[in-house]
Design brief:
The complex is a heterodimer. Chain A folds into two domains: 5-86, Gyrase A, domain 2 (2-Layer Sandwich); 97-222, Cyclophilin-like (Cyclophilin, Beta Barrel). Chain A is built from four helices and 13 strands. Chain A is elongated. In chain A, strand 9 and strand 10 (179-182) form a beta hairpin. Chain A has helices spanning 24-40, 72-86, 112-119, 123-131; strands spanning 5-8, 13-17, 45-50, 54-59, 97-104, 135-140, 147-150, 165-168, 172-176, 179-182, 187-189, 192-196, 217-222. By secondary structure, chain A is α+β, with helices and mostly antiparallel strands. By secondary structure, chain B is of the alpha+beta class. Chain B folds into two domains: 2-185, no CATH class; 193-312, Cyclophilin, CATH 2.40.100.10. Helices cover 17% and strands 24% of the residues of chain B. In chain B, strands 19-12-13-16-15-18-11-20 form an eight-stranded mixed sheet. Chain B has a six-stranded antiparallel sheet with strand order 2-3-8-5-6-10. In chain B, a hairpin with a 7-residue loop joins strand 12 (217-219) and strand 13. The radius of gyration of chain B is 21 Å and the shape is elongated. The chains are: A alpha+beta, B alpha+beta.
Chain lengths: 223, 330
């Protein structure tokens, strides 16, 4: 892999950039880098989190002191750079397929008709398109277990709501920009709600706690 | 051994060293807003620095100690106990903590540590994520038996005297020594907060680049453990930016389209898509955490190298202090 850009995210974290776009290949590279870093087991690393096009590494500067005048960040960045350059490009990680049953429209998906109007489609066509696509989990973030899915059909992509809702019910299946996802718990949110699932996306008492993981393939089934 | 919550205060929660290694699941670290005060409270009672302690916000709780305990209160000043020192408290004592006149967070550590429920490897409350909750009246907090301090001979070891006088409580015995908080705790609003330029600092327009370090911001009333919203100078970018969501951490200074920057704090989300115009340096984050709604904030630019040098100095000093106090508690 080519030399990545490494950004200092303040004095206790670094961001390894793979690209600037929401793109399946770039995301596969981010996931591969995160995997390589976990395997490398570097000292003082407290968290490794892949995103769409980057990997966030939190570290304790005390673990990266050296004899020379280099700063802990400079030492870490050199090590991360070498690791990433030597990392073998891997096939996209396939963490399996999961099917999520969704009740579309009505109270479960109050924005389905709006989405259909904006897309210039019948509501049934929106459901067929949303269900007829296999998505891939790019990253988890925003709130525990919230999965950002790649692969939303072009026609369903639309700007977020002008005014975010203060309360989005848990299990809401939603569209925001080029992304689709499921709200794990009741939170504020600005995406268009098209349906709802009974599946529990995140349970801290479960192992693993998150239902979805980066690299996993996802299909929605209308019920 | 336990502590019973008689009244919860404004927002009192259990905080330990936080959740580690779970950002990939969207789970943030949480933990104390003023990490240094929480660590010092633990050090003062002989605990490991990351033991679970109570974080008290603005107005304190009323607590009943069901057994003899040794406790320490640090952070923003409030009535209830002498601060910055170990204090022996006799079983059955009720303590009503007061209201802070300045600052926002205080920490109460108990020798042995609080043994509340663990969620994903940590006892820290994460209010936004819904892991545990702020304390409510009627809650009972189990306390781990301390291996370092035997309560029987505390009085001798601390040379402690019971508090006397009208406001005194005869069941509370503070040590006759205390930690000078001056090097560790600073509420002076005139002292600027160090900021490292972020990846998108250069995308601010000329006025905004000057304003970030020249103007005085106010902490908004809509601030929380998730982040401090800063008002006054609106900061604008040269042109609007569309960013792909990427990792953010406590201290990250984000600029949403409103132009009012947000500093992410203990309950920072794991990712964000707003421009990263700066990062509050780790050693200044506890001082910023103590600013309450309405307080002023000024920023000063600091290089990454300087920030890390200060971080290493702080950690060395904390380690040395912890050793000194440990010897004293033996």
């Amino acid at each position: 892999m080519s030399a990545p850009r490494i950004e200092a995210l303040g004095d206790c974290a670094a961001l390894i950039h793979c690209g600037d776009a929401i793109d399946a290949d770039v995301n596969a590279q981010a996931l591969a880098i995160a995997r390589a870093l976990i395997d490398a087991n570097l000292p003082g690393i407290t968290d490794i989190a892949p995103a769409y096009a980057s990997v966030c590494v939190r570290y304790d500067p005390c673990a990266w002191i050296g004899a020379d005048a280099q700063s802990p960040f400079a030492r870490l960045a050199a090590r991360l750079g070498a690791l990433v350059e030597n990392a073998q490009p891997v096939a996209p990680i396939d963490a399996g397929l999961i099917e999520i049953p969704v009740s579309y429209g009505g109270e479960s998906g109050p924005d389905l008709d709006d989405v259909a109007t904006q897309a210039g489609l019948m509501r049934e066509a929106v459901i067929d398109l949303h269900c007829g696509t296999e998505y891939r989990v790019a990253m988890l973030g925003f709130t525990p277990g919230f999965a950002y899915l790649l692969g939303l059909p072009e026609v369903l992509r639309m700007p977020r709501r002008a005014t975010p809702r203060t309360r989005v019910p848990a299990g809401s299946v939603a569209i925001g920009g080029a992304q689709t996802g499921v709200y794990p718990r009741e939170t504020p949110g600005g995406w268009h709600l098209i349906g709802r699932t009974e599946f529990n996306l995140f349970d801290p008492g479960r192992d693993p706690p998150a239902l979805l993981a980066p690299g996993m393939r996802v299909r929605f089934m209308a019920i | 051994m336990s502590i019973r919550v008689l009244a919860a205060g404004w927002q009192t929660s259990v905080q330990d060293g936080g959740r580690r290694g779970l950002a990939a699941l969207g789970v943030g670290a949480s933990g104390a807003m003023d990490v240094v005060s929480r660590r010092l409270a633990n050090i003062l009672v002989g605990n490991g620095e990351n033991a679970a302690a109570l974080e008290i916000t603005l107005r304190g709780p009323r607590l009943r100690f069901d057994a003899d305990c040794v406790v320490a209160l640090t952070g923003a000043a409030l009535d209830g106990l002498p601060m910055w020192r170990p204090v022996a408290v006799r079983a059955g004592t009720d303590i009503a903590f007061g209201t802070m006149q300045r600052g926002a967070y205080a920490y109460l550590a108990v020798a042995g540590g609080i043994e509340s429920e663990t969620v994903l490897g940590s006892r820290s409350t994460d209010i936004v994520a819904g892991f545990n909750a702020a304390l409510a009246a009627g809650d009972v907090l189990p306390i781990l038996e301390s291996s370092h301090i035997q309560h029987r001979d505390l009085w001798r070891r601390f040379h402690a005297r019971p508090l006397t006088g009208d406001s005194g409580n005869r069941d509370v015995f503070p040590a006759n020594w205390s930690l000078n908080p001056r090097s560790w705790f600073d509420l002076d609003l005139h002292n600027p907060i160090g900021v490292i330029e972020g990846a998108h600092f250069a995308q601010l327009n000329d006025a905004a680049r000057r304003a970030l370090f020249d103007s005085t911001f106010r902490v908004g009333g809509d601030s929380s453990r998730m982040g401090l919203r800063l008002h006054s100078a609106h900061l604008d970018l040269r042109e609007a930016m569309e960013l792909v969501s990427s990792g953010v951490v406590p201290g990250t200074l984000q600029l949403p389209p409103s132009g009012d920057p947000i500093v992410l704090m203990a309950e920072a989300p794991t990712c964000g898509g707003y421009p990263r115009i700066g990062h509050v340096i780790a050693v200044d984050l506890p001082r910023l955490a103590q600013r309450r709604p309405g307080d002023s904030v000024r920023f000063t630019p600091i290089s990454l190298d300087e920030a890390q040098t200060r971080y290493l100095e702080r950690e060395r000093a904390l380690l040395a202090l912890a050793r000194t106090i440990k010897d004293r508690l033996q």
